[in-house]
What does this fold into?
Amino acid sequence: MTVQAVVARARSSVGSFYARFGSKDDLLAYLGEHIRESAATEWGDALLAKSWSDRGLRDIAVEEIDLLLELRARWEARLRAAQGLSSGEADYEGFRRAIVEELASRLLERRSEIRHPNPEVAVRVGLWAVLGVIDHPPFGHAAGDLTPDALRHECSELLLRYLVGSSGGSGAQVEFFDVWS
It folds into this structure.
């Protein structure tokens, strides 16, 4: 990409370009920041649109997974593009960490419903596990193709069983591999 190609595509002039940006790298940094800001705004708007009060842990977890599944495809491509625009300034992983922390705080408001001995760690590990599954869904091979509803259900089960144990409710300490037993 050249400055000349940018101004030609924008139907502008080189002088106009340099009046706004010092260099092509400045343009790329601006675009990367704009992409990150729009993804963060979209995420924030989606969180605000949900009613989180007076909801139990299960409802909140399912709602959070729905949001991740719905928005991930939209913001992930934009954020990865932003990462490629500048020299490492775009912090895709930082954005993901911020999302996990925001979702974790909502789940931890229902700490009394979590039976894992360390709720703070369990919520974060569970959310990162869900993000891993969402990022790399087990399509094909032995797992068979998952429909979006099946993926939603499996992610919900993974997170909730890790936090509260099996639906049988023995009250015993929850271990990571209990979700598969």
